[in-house]
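Protein folds are increasingly written down as discrete tokens. With that in mind, we are printing a sequence and the tokens encoding its fold.
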Amino acid sequence: MGNFALVFFSGNCHCWVLNMGGCCSHEVSIRGKVESEVDEGEYEYDYENDLTYERDGALVRLRGSSMVSSMFTQQGKKGVNQDAMTIWEDYTGEKDMIFCGVFDGHGPLGHKVSQFVRDNLPLKLSAAIKMSQQKACKYYDASDTNTGAFGDVYHENNDNMSLASWEGCFLKSFDEMDEYLAQQVNTDSYCSGCTAVTVVKQGDQLIVGNLGDSRAVLCTRDGDQLIPVQLTVDLKPDIPSETSRIIHCEGRVFAAEEEPDVFRIWMPDDDCPGLAMSRAFGDFCLKDYGLISAPDVFYRKITQQDQFVVLATDGIWDVLTNLEVITIVATAPRRSMAAKLLVKRAVRAWRYKYPGSKVDDCAVVCLFLDEQPVLSHSQSRSSRHRRSSSNNRHLHHSWSTRNEDTETVDGKVGVELDEEWKALGGFARANSITKLPRLARDSSRTQSSRYLRGS
């Protein structure tokens, strides 16, 4: 089972001012630089490149932007682009519900795995949500006391599921997705997989399901300051609870001599595959040795100060801080180019900070929580459906704090904070896996064959 926590983060960001986006102590992009790049025409939005279709009552977007979103991906220098992304508007057929997700593949078939999960996970989660809502309806119908007050309770719970129900939906759909992947994808997925960070927005609720080391960060506002609020934990093998589970399953966790800061999962009797995350879809060679597909699930109630959420693969977070990311998005002259600006800035940072490393694939989804951009009054023209966020948002005090400099977090339920959250800091520039297991090795293949048979 995954860990379910009510987790909120807040920062103390004294440098950035809302009206100008200026910087006084951090080497990040200022509004003037962004505008100078836009003048070159490189970031003009290509509306003809939008890719959308309708599925299960929702508008599915694989490329492009809308009034509430911006998305962009770019291939790195390691081969085929293994990142994928999607946005579903009118998710589950409801007008106020949106699903967003980014998926980072790895291994020989990582690109196929990430695309397969991108196309199928939203359907499985949608089915789980509908089933949960139907069960709630049956429960309240059976218990109806024919009083007006109880009818109000029924209506409210039909629209907004309990947190336990949301957790159950995410856990169920992620587990089914992994089983379906084992049945449908080429057996090379035995050594391939992908991460996922997903967000469902329903009215003033955000529910986040995270699997692996991609990340979701919220931009909120405190007066004229923009504050990054990290919504997920980077699930790395050296997090104590993750390490404990892996070792209990006879997997091994250690960093190679050439990468002393990158901890990986290894098989019990072979130095492979060296996976740099502790949870993922696929990678069935490690599923008997501590790797799981159960997501961490987090919840946040949207406030009037909350501006947007950025979902991105680790190609972004390896070179840009949370503050840098939200500032670049917030200072984009138009929403439609926000994701592309962020990816281009990350690529530039890769070349500057790590000139000897190959630039990683990057994928970004920006989900805006109101109709007006943070710093710009211009709006995208490409949406088929104009959205509006809830008119009855309530202010909500954060249950925890986040220190911008040390990246420590307080408030996660049931963990030892000083150690559990240390994986939030630092950069992991290494490949997701070091080498593939020898598939002829009977000891590991026999134990994991049940995944490939779909049992």
The first strand starts at residue 4 and ends at 5. The chain has one domain: 11-234+302-421. The first helix runs from residue 31 to 39. The chain has a mean pLDDT of 75.
